[in-house]
Amino acid sequence: MESYDIIIIGAGPAGLAAGIYAGRQGTSTLILEKGPAGGLGLEVPMMENYPGYEMIAGMSLINETKKQVLKTTPLHEREEVESVKSDNGSFIIKTINDQYHARALIFSTGSKHRTLDVPGEIKLLGRGVCYCATCDGPLFAGKKVYMVGGGNSAAQEAIFLKNIGCDVTLIHRRDELRAEKYLQEMLKEKKIDIIWDTVVEEVKGDQFVEFLVLKNLKTSIVTEVPAQGIFISVGDTPINQLAKKLGVKLDEQGYIITDKSQRTNIPQVYAAGDITGGYKQWIVACSEGAVAAMAAYEDLQK
Ligand code: NAP
Q: Where's the FAD/NAD(P)-binding domain (predicted)?
């Protein structure tokens, strides 16, 4: 069984940043990632608030970061972790391919898209129902699509869809957006229509999305609108199953509780990035990853 000082589970911005720090401080480290490196970061169409870049796509920043990580730290993509167990103060990590031993663990498992849980959503998934504008948006150029949500992601993705030639309308369940002011202004500038106080009650279609059933929450009026696509961006939920099984303490929403050095309630277990909740920002994820790696280093020296 291969043995490492630190194993990092999850290679989004937090896990990759932890990998850079862990590798450069000389700790033997492995990063395990169930999909391609990047996590939800791959879906960010454009970022304007990451220092050093006036504007950069999530995918480009991940590619750059990955190159930097690989200089010091191995990264196993598409190697899903199946279980993590305590073993006399260290850990046994079982993946779909192998088994590893680690003295310290960093959970940077991130979060996944929340669903609407309405009829037709799962049936028409990939046939007009989408959760990632960057990935699927180009298939809908020139078509009528709706973006559901009122947060930063929904606003950014609606702007992205408009820019690539989709006829996009935003649907939000309240009468004001949660998205930051500058994004609200961009929505106005781009003349993106917003349907307020409205939820999607059903996605209809035989083979592909054809109609959305909408309900205005103020008037209770139900309407049916023709649609070729629906993009759902209504927040996310933490991917916490492995941590939970290990006994890592979670808050009431399922996010891992850490101290300011990213330590959890279990010695030599740390968490970083979206899995810790709070401000889900790229720069915050990277900072937490760096802090987790430094705290792990400090603890392993003792
Ligand atoms: P979010 O901020 O949690 O917003 C989710 C939106 O979906 C809210 O407007 C919410 O409505 C709506 N919603 C939730 N459940 C719904 C349902 N069942 N039906 C209809 N609408 C529903 O999520 P997010 O936009 O995905 O962002 C996640 C995190 O990443 C946030 O912390 C965000 O700030 C961060 N982020 C930051 C940037 C950036 O560039 N700064 C970009 C993207 C994401 P209500 O408003 O009524 O609750």
A: 4-289
Q: Are residues 296 and 133 in contact, defined by beta-carbon separation less than 8 angstroms?
A: no
Residue 46: per-residue pLDDT: 85
Nearest protein CA to atom 26 of ligand 1, as residue = 235
Q: To test the ligand 1 pocket, which listed residue (173, 216, 236, 274) has its Cβ within 8 A of the most ligand atoms?
A: 173
The DSSP code sequence of 27-94 is: --EEEE-SSSTTGGGGG---BS-STT-SSB-HHHHHHHHHHHHHTT--EETT--EEEEEEETTEEEEE
Q: What is the rounded CA–CA span in Å between residue 171 and residue 69?
A: 39
Closest ligand 1 atom to Cα of 114: 15
Q: What is the mean pLDDT of each run of 10 residues along the chain (302 residues)?
A: 97 98 96 96 89 94 97 98 95 97 98 96 95 91 98 96 97 97 97 98 98 98 98 96 98 97 98 95 97 98 92
SS3 267: coil
What's the confidence (pLDDT) of residue 104?
98
Mutation pick for ligand 1 pocket among 234, 274, 282, 283 (CB with most ligand atoms within 8 Å): 234
